[in-house]
Amino acid sequence: MQGSEKYNQHSLYLTDAETLSTRQDALSRFLAAVKKADAPLSDRDPEALAAVAGATGLDQQLVDEVAAEFEFSTQLGPELPGDLADRARWAQSVGRVPQDAQIPDYSTLIVSAPLDGITR
After folding, report:
1. Among 23, 59, 93, 94, which one is most buried in terms of CB atoms within 10 A?
2. Is residue 10 part of a domain?
């Protein structure tokens, strides 16, 4: 894409309060593994891309071409609460969520603890 405006795709990993409270260590390990894959995938490491192709059953060339269009970064960006609210309003506009449903303040619901302390 040309210019300063870039497309950002969010992959959301969601859990409920019970799982968060009882399995936070497992969630942190999962997110650490995802974050550890950021650099090899962003750097187009052939071994990492081959692992993706093998795990997904997709053609290696397709994985290579698609991965070249992405920069992988596991983080909770400051735009996330607003983006979630935008998605909720969209869901209301297409009838997936009742019009009278209260859209929450997502900044009060996002829990960063499973990502805290993960440096790689």
Report:
1. 23
2. no
Question: In the structure, how many helices (H) and strands (E) does the chain have?
Answer: 5, 0
User: 26: domain range?
Assistant: 17-108
Q: How far apart are CA 40 and CA 27, in angstroms?
A: 21
In a domain, 53, yes or no: yes
Beta-carbon contacts of 71 under 8 Å, excluding residues fewer than 6 positions away, are 42
Distance CA 79, CA 9 (A): 12
Q: Give me the number of domains the chain comprises.
A: 1
* Alpha-carbon radius of gyration of the chain: 17
**Residue 117 domain-assigned (yes or no):** no
Q: Kindly report, residue by residue over 50-85, the tens digit of the pLDDT.
A: 999 999 999 999 999 999 988 898 988 888 899 999
Secondary structure of residue 75 in the 3-state scheme:
coil
Whether the Cβ atoms of residue 38 and residue 11 lie closer than 8 Å to each other: no
Please tell me the pTM assigned to this model. 0.73
